[in-house]
């Protein structure tokens, strides 16, 4: 009898012009090290350019993404979330993922996109600041939490200055790290705590 574990489903990273390339690196790097395939998803398969000038060739188009085939959808921030409706299809796809029980993680401007789509109306969430989301006219202001990152059911949210906290909640949600190891991971990468290194080294988490 074959007792080998089932292969992990891939993590989909949304990519689009003006994406904030510093916001998801901790999450994707450590998910990849844990054995997750990271696949980039664009509106099409045409290359996009990040805020930092990185040119990214999407692995597949948004229309070809299925929630049942994914472990997680990550939505980084981008200027386009606030300057046009170009990224609204990504928010709609996030809604499909959540409806299917597949996790979504959104940071920075992507949280505003989810707010406009009504996906934060009944979930605890955070973002850059409360009035940033309030400007979208969404109905979820009572559920805003002023903290570094929030996980409510299958949704992680964070503000643009919290890429490490964002990654921490993603790693917890997918069960990559937990407990003492997750705490040490956060202390090392967020606080440069040298004592955390020994905990991670002992756990084989480096």
Description of the structure:
The protein is an alpha/beta fold. The protein has helices at 25-33, 80-83, 88-99, 109-116, 130-134, 163-173, 179-191, 194-203, and strands at residues 11-14, 38-42, 48-49, 55-56, 60-61, 72-75, 104-107, 149-152, 155-158. The two termini are 33 Å apart. It has a seven-stranded mixed β-sheet with strand order 5-2-1-6-7-9-8, sandwiched between helices. It has a two-stranded antiparallel ribbon with strand order 3-4. Helices cover 35% and strands 15% of the residues. It has eight helices and nine strands. Strand 3 (48-49) and strand 4 form a beta hairpin.
Key traits:
single chain; 15% strand; two-stranded antiparallel ribbon; 206 residues; alpha/beta; 35% helix
Write the layout of secondary structure elements.
Blueprint: E1 11-14, H1 25-33, E2 38-42, E3 48-49, E4 55-56, E5 60-61, E6 72-75, H2 80-83, H3 88-99, E7 104-107, H4 109-116, H5 130-134, E8 149-152, E9 155-158, H6 163-173, H7 179-191, H8 194-203
Parallel strand pairs: 1-2, 1-6, 2-5, 6-7, 7-9
Antiparallel strand pairs: 3-4, 8-9
How would you summarize this macromolecular structure in one to three sentences?
This protein is an alpha/beta fold. It is built from 8 helices and 9 strands.
- How much of the sequence lies in strands comes to 15-25%
- Average pLDDT for all residues: 95
Number of strands: 9
Which oligomerization state do the chains in this entry correspond to?
single chain
What distance separates the N and C termini?
A: 33 Å
- Alpha-carbon Rg, integer: 17 Å
Q: What is the spatial order of strands in the main beta sheet? A: 5-2-1-6-7-9-8
Order of helices and strands: EHEEEEEHHEHHEEHHH
Query: Which structural category fits the helices and strands?
Result: alpha/beta
Proportion of residues in helical segments: 25-40%
Q: What about the largest sheet?
A: 7 strands, mixed
- Enumerate how many helices there are, as a single number: 8
Shape: globular
Instruction: List segments where confidence is low: pLDDT < 50 over at least 5 consecutive residues.
Output: none
